Amino acid sequence: MTKPYFVYVTYIRSTPEKVWAALTDPVAVSKYWFNMTVECPFTPGSPWALKYDDGRVADTGEILEADPPRRLVIRWRNEFKPELKAEGYSRCTITIELAEYYPGMGGKAVKLTVEHGLEGEGGKFIEAVSGGWPKVLSNLKSYLESGDVAFKE
Amino acid sequence: MTIDAMDAVFRALADASRRELLDRLRAENGQTLGQLCARLAMTRQAVSKHLALLEEANLVATVKRGREKLHYLNPVPIHDIGERWISKFERSRLQALSELKKNLEGGEA
């Protein structure tokens, strides 16, 4: 097993079921993921695609594991930028757990972990997604906690 | 981000040794406790304590790989703090200012 290139963690005042729904429902995704839409039945082996609001395909891949509301593994490749597509597939593992402790949330928080690494060699794809994930996670957190997001684009 | 969570971040960042650990992880993400200790003039016990505090503040995320525990720099809380005080209209101007400073000083901003 190769080392993931990055691991991001955020704590959200919500339930695992709501976090899972926010990750898999196309309407919810478009609200915190800069109007992107996701097309996927989220069952193991099914194709997965992330599209811009004008229908252009940004990323495609396949669901490797889906265990609602706990674990989602996506094999993921960029389709939009040739230099990113050339690096091939990455693997994104999303884990949803009940947080044992988080300051100020009185034990009522969900720990959301995103691990993302490339299967082969390269650095541009991971650089691109590692710039995007903190904004997406920050938006997802505010979407679930207050219904609004900070970054609209 | 709750006030308590933000307090934990600032407390964690207020120590030079802990900031050094974050710098080490920025240079090379996914290190074990042993790897981090080998390059620092601190006891294993001290490094372990600092890492626990950084993890509690969510500035370090850990992943188990077999028997190893790998440490990753988690920038999400710092991003959340930035978002609190930087408005989205200021973002591009601040980035331009930071680039200018970097170019003029010929090093890292």
Give a structural overview:
The complex is a heterodimer of chains A (153) and B (109). By secondary structure, chain A is an alpha+beta fold. Chain A has helices spanning 16-24, 26-32, 82-85, 124-146; strands at residues 6-12, 37-39, 47-51, 57-67, 71-78, 90-98, 110-118. The model of chain A has no long low-confidence stretch (mean pLDDT 90). Chain A has one domain (6-146): START domain (Alpha-D-Glucose-1,6-Bisphosphate, Chain A, domain 4). In chain B, helix 1 runs antiparallel to helix 4 (44-56). Chain B is mainly α and 109 residues long. The mean pLDDT of chain B is 90. Chain B is built from six helices and two strands. Chain B has two domains: 1-74, Orthogonal Bundle (Arc Repressor Mutant, subunit A), CATH 1.10.10; 75-109, no CATH class. The two termini of chain B are 27 Å apart. The interface between A and B is medium-sized, with 24 and 23 residues.
